[in-house]
Sequence to fold (448 residues):
Amino acid sequence: MAKQKVRYECGNCGHDSPKWLGVCPSCNEWHTFEEIKESKKPKKKHKVEIGEDDESEKAVLLSDVESNEHDRRSTGIAELDRVLGGGIVKGAFLLLGGDPGIGKSTLMLELAKSKPDWKILYVAGEESPSQIKQRAARMNVTGDQLYVFLNSNIDSIISQARRIQPDLLVIDSIQTAYSSNLTSLPGSVQQVRECSAMLQQLSKKEGITTLMIGHVTKEGDIAGPRILEHMVDTVLHFEGNQSQFHRLLRSVKNRFGPAQEVGVFEMKQDGLYEVSNPSELFLSDLDTSISGNCVTCVMEGSRPILVEVQALVTASTYSSPQRTANGFDQRRLALLIAVLEKRAGVSFAGQDVYLNVAGGLKISDPAADLAVIAALSSSIKDRPIRKKAIFIGEVGLGGEIRGIRFREQRIREAEKMGLNSVVAPPAEMSIKTDIEIIERTYISQIDK
Fold:
């Protein structure tokens, strides 16, 4: 009789341990280890003779490999095509993650609306067909080629996909899918890993483009084992604040195109709408007559976006002054305040500092440093920044303004939006422009 082997696996990240642990050493989560009993199967001995040659597994030269161009198909949604690198590749395996209620399922219905000739199999594990029908009616989706399948059994899903042969298979969501061969509950690490592996084989062998929708954790990561992101060809994140109307679709990984590309959408009553000019959206309420307001240009992938940085510096009523940032790294803000105090002689002692990126956008581009410096200086001196000016540049610890990437694309975007001056570090220009370029080397020269 085969002996049972007992091991413990983290339900959050899949880390294996021979004994139970209170905290997972991999993801630092508490009380996530579950006992798993496995039957120990005897190993089969396989004798390999030296000199054996298996023709079916013979290595081939790279020059002899037949290569075909990726069969890309446009989704009919320009912002989605931009993120995917030009369209969906036949047989691709994609993963879409995002916060609950952010619009992942709505995006899939928008795809069905823009491509009514595509045969789409929508596997619903969280909603009933009537709920999907109601949303589709609100979005004016006819659904003549949209098949809805209410089943979470992975064997039934694969069977339906092979029978229908859809152009796109949507799994909503992968955490609800399960395999009857496993005893663990749907959503566990074992179930997610097994079901994803089976869908990957279906996608590659049958040439069916598969898109899985995944839940996210409180930290913003896609729930399930980390290997899930390694298995897929493309990882997409749907981001946004539910209090705001805009949504960002970002490619974190893309084997068929550039990563970190961003598509911008606006959520309305009847669905998602593309935003072809994000700069206009984020600068719609700009008021340059108020101190502390400054415009900068950040790069999201290869797309330049103009955003408004707002700063408020006021006398503190607390023993320790507050430093609060929304949409910007708070530690980076503290660093820039220290640089201003040391290199420009601007004192923030006894002052509360509040920084906000208008529109709910989160930025990490170091080219926004100069705009933050300008906004802080403007607010503490209560003096508005010059009208129709943009500040771009990275700030070093010595107070120097460093060069930035994609300088020309940023200047073109500023000129397109009607701005007439750019404050930036010195650099050679290979384009002709009518916009005034004000070159500064140190932050102490900004007011000059």
About this structure: The chain has a mean pLDDT of 88. The first helix runs from residue 78 to 84. The chain has ten helices and 23 strands. The longest strand covers residues 303-315.
